[in-house]
Amino acid sequence: MATGLTVAVVGATGAAGQTTLRILEERKFPVRELRAFASERSVGKTVAFGGEAVAIRKIEAAAFKGVDLAFCSAGSAQSREYAPMIVKAGATVIDKSSAFRMDPAVPLVVPEINPHAVRTHQGILACPNCTTIVTVMPLKPLHDAGRLTRVIATSYQAVSGAGVKGIAELREQTLAWARGEAITPKHFPHQIAFNLIPHIDAFGPDGYTGEEMKLVHETRKILEAPGLPVTPTTVRVPVFTCHSVAVTAETERKITAGEARDLFARFPGLRLWDDPARNRYPMPLVVEGQDDCYVGRVREDLSSPRGVTFWVVGDQLRKGAATNAVQIAELLLR
Ligand code: A2P
Predict the structure, then answer these.
(1) Does any ligand 1 atom lie closer than 6 A to the CB of residue 13?
(2) Does residue 130 have an active-site annotation?
(3) pTM as predicted
(4) Alpha carbon nearest to ligand 1 atom 21, residue
(5) Alpha carbon nearest to ligand 1 atom 3, residue
(6) Residue 326 carries which DSSP code?
(7) Is the CB of 223 under 6 A from ligand 1?
(8) Ligand 1 binding pocket includes 78 (Cβ within 6 Å)
(9) What 3-state class would DSSP assign to 76?
(10) CA torsion, ordered 300, 302, 306, 308, to nearest 10 deg
(11) Residue whose CA is closest, atom 14 of ligand 1?
(12) Does domain 5-128+321-333 have CATH number 3.10.180.10?
């Protein structure tokens, strides 16, 4: 008799959905049956899973009958609409959108950091924002060792964080630039090729963007540090994969650069990559395709006696989305 779970991937044609399919295969997640969903535009297309072509289905309650676990990465509006329906059909939902992250009844989980949170779920578990995951991974061991009192984080975020349209836009603009053709932004508010755009998500009245406030609120929820002061700046950069974050963290107890390096080296899911004499430091091209977040450029803060500053890079489609979601599913199975 076949063993394993019936697993749904909603948003299976997208950047995060495609990566979820690959990670389920790589980690040999016990899938008995895979059901793939996307928008109605994609019904009739197929996605590859386990060496087979799986047809994309239309999202409707009946299609989720018998599903044990659903990974959702079709966007926040879609999650708001579909996740309650999928739970009602009997499945547990691991949602990669921002729809439920700050709901007090929904655990927001990074398995290396707050695995205990999964126990409280009521059908939906949320996967944090990709930049938040990459940022909190090195913050957690610092917080445990010295209690964080302040965080300043500036991100350099890849276009694939904006999905397949973001990837296509950087590719098309780069080719147009090389041909000397005019560039017209479609998905991003400005040209992204050979540019940086300090604007991800809508601006709020205080001048911070939605993406920046996700980093603030989600960091506090995951670290269970409700009042932690966080100053965020998030920037879209012309890189295909991997988010990089320059972080300065202050702690109650001084943590030296050496101690921070030891803490990072020992933390599961982090890899210390810090040998400036040999030009070794994390970069998107080093980290792409990896599940670990790489930390380097670790040094003491020149402007604060209890600050440490460093550079962390993570593949945001993997640890920032799909790997983290599949790790949550693995926790549920334990
Ligand atoms: P589709 O390919 O049919 O548009 P990305 O984040 O890479 O842009 O991917 C978004 C994913 O969400 C895709 O799989 C996309 O499917 C899916 N999607 C977008 N809009 C909807 C919708 N209204 N209902 C269901 N799935 C959607």
Answers:
(1) yes
(2) yes
(3) 0.97
(4) 39
(5) 39
(6) H
(7) no
(8) yes
(9) helix
(10) -30
(11) 11
(12) no
Amino acid at 58: K
pLDDT tens digits for range 8-29: 999 999 999 999 999 999 999 9
Residue type, 266: R
Options 3.30.360.10, 2.170.150.70, 3.40.1410.10, 3.20.20.20; CATH for 131-316 is: 3.30.360.10
In the chain, CATH 3.30.360.10 sits at 131-316
- What residue spans of the chain are helical by DSSP H? 15-26, 76-88, 130-146, 164-179, 210-223, 257-266, 284-287, 323-333
**How far does residue 292's CA lie from ligand 1's centre (Å)?**
27
Atom of ligand 1 nearest to the CA of 56: 3
Q: Is 165 in the pocket of ligand 1 (CB under 6 A)?
A: yes
Do residues 264 and 272 make contact, with C-beta atoms less than 8 angstroms apart?
yes
Q: How far is the CA of 114 from the centre of ligand 1 (A)?
A: 29
Q: Cβ neighbours of residue 298 under 8 Å, at least 6 residues apart?
A: 257, 260, 261, 264, 272, 274, 308, 309, 310
Query: Which among 127, 130, 242, 293 is annotated as catalytic?
Result: 130
Nearest CA to ligand 1 atom 2: 13
Closest by CA position to 12, among listed 89, 118, 96, 88:
96
pLDDT at 3: 85
Using CA atoms in the order 188, 174, 287, 211, what is the torsion angle rounded to 10 degrees? -10
Take atom 6 of ligand 1 and give the residue whose Cα is closest: 163
User: Residues with Cβ < 8 Å from 153, sequence gap 6 or more?
Assistant: 135, 215, 230, 231, 232, 233, 245, 246, 247, 248
Contact predicate 188/165, CB 8 Å: no
Q: What is the pLDDT of residues 133-187, one digit of tens each?
A: 999 999 999 999 999 999 999 999 999 999 999 999 999 999 999 999 999 999 9
Ligand 1 contact, 38 CB (< 6 A) = yes
- Tell whether the model's pLDDT for residue 1 goes beyond 60: no
Q: In angstroms, rounded to a whole number, what is the distance separating the alpha carbons of residues 274 and 313?
A: 12
